[in-house]
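Design a sequence for this backbone.
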């Protein structure tokens, strides 16, 4: 005797079956990729935050000392320049003596500009530095760092070998086959290098001895820096100023828009 089959239990709806088919199935590879992406994102966020707050805190103690000394020396020089300009202004506005004061100020400015341009000799207290380079490892960048250090220390006139150092002075590597040396403004300088500087001797000497500074850099190259202070250092080399190729003095009555 057979029995009729009973009714089937109701199955899942078509929409539920479709959702189950489309539902992502997490595999071990997917989980690993997700963990790696999360770790990478965390590392990027940490690096960005560290970069935002990085600054002086990441510098070495010697670098911080050097920056502090440079800032202090620059501040002292700027303060002295302000006082000098205020004295000049007072003299120029002092009534009957204003014409004489203006002439003195113009003459002083001419001397200062001549010193900066390297067109006049300089004499005064300063130092004479000698760089012994038996291994021939001193490069143009080393002398550039030395000059920059001297300028930061308030050097008013610098001479390297027989070359007067001005704002346009260029240091380059010596041509191949010429032996150890550095080319400055087209002139080949060979070791030992003599550097004459007119500046406050104590300030310049201290600047060269700052930890991590020029002396230490030269020592790492196998070179030796010797500094001798003096109350009278002569910077006699002059910088040749080329004549303008296109510019010519304008007439006193010329206006900006005239031809």
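Sequence:
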């Amino acid at each position: 005797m057979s029995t009729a089959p009973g009714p089937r239990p109701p199955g899942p709806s078509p929409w539920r079956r479709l959702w189950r088919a489309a539902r992502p199935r997490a595999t071990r590879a997917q989980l690993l990729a997700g963990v790696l992406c999360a770790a990478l994102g965390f590392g990027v966020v940490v690096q960005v935050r560290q970069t935002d707050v990085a600054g002086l805190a990441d510098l070495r103690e010697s670098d911080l000392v050097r920056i502090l000394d440079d800032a202090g020396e620059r501040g002292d020089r700027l303060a002295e320049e302000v006082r000098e300009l205020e004295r000049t202004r007072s003299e120029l506005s002092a009534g009957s003596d204003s014409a004489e004061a203006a002439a003195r100020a113009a003459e002083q400015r001419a001397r200062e500009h001549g010193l900066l341009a390297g067109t006049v000799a300089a004499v005064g207290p300063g130092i004479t530095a000698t760089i012994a380079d038996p291994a021939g490892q001193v490069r143009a960048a080393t002398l550039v760092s030395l000059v920059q250090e001297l300028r930061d220390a308030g050097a008013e006139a610098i001479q390297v070998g027989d070359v007067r150092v001005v704002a346009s002075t260029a240091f380059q590597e010596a041509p191949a086959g010429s032996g150890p040396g550095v080319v400055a403004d087209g002139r080949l300088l060979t070791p030992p290098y003599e550097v004459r500087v007119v500046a406050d001797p104590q300030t310049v000497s201290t600047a060269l001895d700052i930890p991590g500074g020029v002396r230490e850099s030269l020592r790492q190259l196998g070179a030796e820096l010797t500094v001798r202070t003096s109350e009278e250092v002569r910077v006699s080399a002059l910088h040749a100023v080329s004549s303008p190729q296109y510019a010519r003095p304008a007439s006193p009555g010329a206006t900006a828009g005239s031809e």
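The domain at 60-241 is CATH 3.30.70.1880 (Alpha-Beta Plaits).
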